[in-house]
Design brief:
With 276 residues, this protein is of the alpha/beta class. It has a single domain, classed as 3-Layer(aba) Sandwich (Rossmann fold), CATH 3.40.50.150. Helices cover 39% and strands 23% of the residues. It contains eight helices and seven strands, in the order H-E-H-E-H-E-E-H-E-H-H-E-H-H-E. Helix 2 links the parallel strand 1 and strand 2. The longest helix has 28 residues. It is globular. It starts with a helix and ends with a strand. The mean pLDDT is 94.
Length: 276
Amino acid sequence: MPANNTDDHYARQLININPVTKTAIKDAIAEFNPPPGSHGLDAGCGTASKSIWLADYIQPDGKVTGFDRSPGLLAHARKLVDENGYSGKITLEEGSISSLPYEDNTFGWVWCCDTLWAGGERLGFGDTVEVIKEFARVTVPGGMIAVVFWSSQLLLPGYPELESRLFKAFNESTFYTAGINPEHHSMKTLGWLDKAGLKNPKAKTFISNFQAPLSERIRTGLDLTLHMFFDGLKEHIAPDDWQHLQGLMDSGSRDYILNNDDYYGFITYTIFRGEV
């Protein structure tokens, strides 16, 4: 399947958002604690940014196999891996995480971040418990599996009612969150791990904080994050809320929220992990 413009646009968004998510995700990797020198699978690796952070953690001899079904994202991943000198540590392969082309007990661990939304069913991965069983199949006994999600945020400090209405509209209008079975919600992942037969499932949440003055990279990432969440909500919120939001998100507006001298925001990531 060839890459397309949608893949390319999404890949660039992911790369530009990395500075916003980096602290929380790298702390989650430290909590996961893959052993130095191990070989692991980054299932749903996207642009491979997290594969690089995982490879850094398991230096000097560790290796990561990045696996994704999107050729467009993998094209960006290969470029990122090559440009940053990780071609000897990271291998990238294409396919579906619901049917991994690896023998049993191939990897010391499996990491899967921001992939199994809505239980996987609406995104074409099938039943999430079965996907996690597939992760377990390719992991050595005693190895660890981590499933990680963006779990909360504060992006519009000072406007809690507006932000609450915006995320209510987002959750009600986005196909992978609207009306899902509660058992398929990402924050139910401890249950998925248990049903997949993993031992000692645990969860922990980590935070990335943003305080003015914002660096240019953080400002760019936060601006993109705001637009990714809210640009599609015009038909789902009140006209007054939409007009107010435009002023807060317009970098040329005197109300642009990222210009506030007292800006503070955060995002959190939650890691769910269990032992094979």
